[in-house]
Structures are given as C-alpha cells and as structure tokens.
Design goal:
- The protein is α/β, with parallel strands linked by helices and 357 residues long.
- The strands form three sheets. Strands 1, 2, 3, 4, 5, 6 and 15 form a seven-stranded mixed sheet that branches.
- Strand 7 and strand 8 form a beta hairpin.
- It starts with a helix and ends in an 18-residue tail after the last helix.
- This is Carbon-nitrogen hydrolase.
- It holds the Pfam family CN_hydrolase.
- Keywords: Hydrolase.
- InterPro entries: C-N_Hydrolase, C-N_Hydrolase_sf, Nit1/2_C-N_Hydrolase, UPF0012_CS.
Length: 357
C-alpha cells in the first residue's frame, strides 16, 4: 500500500516527538505535499489598511471653477479672482480648483508668449515677472482656501546660458494663508494624432515634469495633483492612493474628440480603481474659430465612481461635499486593499518613485 505524502510528514514529526534525542529535523527532510503552497505575499503598505475616515480627517467641500480663457492674461487673472470669490461664497468650498491653462489660450503657439517664471522667493513675487503667481497667491489668501491653480505656462531660463529656455505646463498649489505648498509640472505631454480628428504635440514646445505631486492639507489629509493627459496613466493615481490620498485632482483641457470619448470615463476609472474622490476641472468651451475647443464638463466623482456633480459646456461652478466615511464604505464593501496579490505582480508604489524634480 502506497503511503500518502501527508501521512509521511506526520510519521516524521511523530518519530521526532517519540525520540527527543533524535537530531533536529531540517526543513528539507519534510516533504511538502502538492496540496500545500508556500505563501509569500508581503504585508500591504500602511495606506491600504488605514480607515478612510483618517484619510479625510473631516468632511470638506471641493469646487471646480470652469472658466473660459481669453487672449488677455490680465483679464483671465481678474476673472479667475472674481469667479473663485463668488464660488466660495455660494458653495462654502475650502478646496477650489481652476482649469488647465486658465491664464492663457491653450496651444503650442501661445505657451512661449504667455509663459512666466516662478519667483525665486515665493514670499516676494514680482508683479511684472510673476503676475499669475501673485494673483493665485492673493486669491487663496483672500478667500482662505486651498487653491489648486489650474495650470500656467512656466518659463525656466538657464542660469549658465540665458538664451536657453524651457517651458512647462505647471500647476501651483497654495494654502489658505497664501503660501505656495507645491508645484506640479505636467509629467505626460499631450502628443496625439487621431487621423481626420485632431493632432496636437505639446512636446514641440513643452518639457515634461519629473515627479509625482502629493500635498498634505493639515486639516483634511493628502491630495494628489496632476494635469490633463496625466490622467491616462494610472500609475500616478495608484501610487497616490497607496500613499494615503483622499482625492486625485486633475485640471485638464480635453477636446471635442477625446472629451466625449474618455473624459468622464477616465475620471470614473481612476475613482473606482483607487476607491477615492476624483475631480477634473476643464476650461469652459470657446467655439471661436481657430482656438482650441475645450470639452468642458468639469466633474467630481466619488469612491464608488458615481458622478456627484458635472458641469455643462459653458462657464460654471460645480461642487460636492467629500466625506471620508464614503471612502471607507467603498473599501470595506469591495475590499481591494486586502485582496491585492503582490506575490503575483509588483506594488508600483514601492518601486522607484520620484517626488522631486
């Protein structure tokens, strides 16, 4: 009669107990039956098991301010100031988001002429050199809000060679006191070519950023900020979620081809994949001939991928109350955080991640 592998294991262990003087059994002496499997899944990162109520420490209203951009930078800046003030009064928002390239027309032909440097001393911006920085700082301070300042074309001049210039698509994030908390340079440049629909090549003028941007808002928790085309790359969102963010915020300017196809879909996808809030803030649509036609439809999505608020095409403010209990409710009901298989695939948040330019 053939002895089963399991019975063989038991006989070896029983023999050891009956004869304590016997030499200790090495692991190699114990045959492992095929029904046993070595488990090597590492413990999940702390952010995956942190209750949602601690990710978002208290409920907060977030507002997306959907604005048109004109050819006048000063007009765009003053319009943004009045629109944010009105939005804060009507919604009581404490986190406010502006659109991508809110201070200028969107287009490679426009980036160089509208670009401005960031101040070497953020506490002392120059009205002549840094008008957009100064305007955003003032908007945040006067309205006492966390301001995700959409994005602006940023100019960087080489110190060693003043004729060498680089341009970035950059978001500036300010605190309620007007302090600059972080900057995010668009990591993935919008280079696409859909035959008979649209061709756009940001890399003709812009350089890419080189970091993921996570900001801690002391009263609320962590948010991640990225720009437009960045949303198509789920790695940024996955890492931000694993690092404990309660919201992903994307100023973006999708067009009339990609907007109807993917704008809402991508917002919902990033939300459902990561079980957190997602906000997308677009410019209002301008149908003037020869300008970039933004899709509009700024929206806010909850951790179960339900759209809480969505704008139309024109100038509009949409807002929603973000509640940490909704994050935990989603993660408890569909417990992805406890079911990931890092023995099968890697945890991208534990790889080489850049948080500095």
């Amino acid at each position: 009669m053939r002895t089963s592998p399991t019975l063989g294991v038991l006989r070896i262990l029983t023999s050891s107990l009956a004869h304590p003087s016997t030499r200790p059994i090495s692991r190699a002496q114990i045959p492992l039956p095929s029904l046993f499997r070595k488990m090597s899944t590492p413990a999940p990162p702390p952010a995956q098991t942190t209750p949602g109520t601690t990710l978002l420490r208290q409920p907060v209203t977030l507002a997306c301010v959907q604005l048109p951009s004109t050819a006048s930078k000063s007009t765009n800046l003053s319009h943004a100031a009045s629109a944010v003030s009105s939005a804060v009064k009507s919604t009581k928002a404490k986190i406010v988001v502006l659109p991508e390239c809110f201070n200028s027309p969107y287009g490679t032909d426009h980036f160089p002429s509208y670009a401005e440097p960031l101040p070497s001393d953020p506490a002392n911006p120059s009205p002549e050199l840094n008008p957009s920085f100064l305007a955003l700082q003032k908007i945040a301070r006067e309205n006492e809000v966390y301001l995700i300042g959409g994005s602006i074309p940023e100019l960087v001049v080489s110190e060693s060679d003043p004729s060498s210039k680089k341009y970035y698509n950059t978001s500036l994030i300010f605190g309620p006191g007007g302090k600059l908390l972080a900057t995010h340079r668009k990591v993935h440049l919008f280079d696409i070519d859909i035959p008979d629909k649209i061709k756009f090549t940001e890399s003709d003028i812009l350089s890419p950023g080189n970091k993921l941007t996570v900001i801690d808002l002391p009263e609320y928790g962590k948010i991640a900020v990225a720009i437009c085309y960045d949303i198509r790359f789920p790695e940024l969102a996955i890492i931000a979620a694993r690092k404990g963010c309660f919201a992903l915020i994307y100023p973006g300017a999708f067009n009339l081809t990609t907007g109807p196809l993917h704008w809402k879909l991508l917002g919902q996808a990033r939300a459902v994949d990561n079980q957190l809030y997602v906000a997308l803030c677009s410019p209002a649509r301008d149908i003037t001939e020869g300008v970039y036609h933004a899709y509009g439809h700024s929206l806010i999505v909850d951790p179960m991928a339900q759209v809480l608020a969505e704008a139309g095409e024109g100038e509009q403010v949409v807002s929603a109350l973000l509640d940490g209990s909704k994050i935990e409710e989603a993660r408890k009901g569909i417990p992805l955080r406890d079911q990931r298989r890092f023995d099968v695939y890697p945890d991208v948040s534990e790889g080489k991640v850049s948080y500095e330019e």
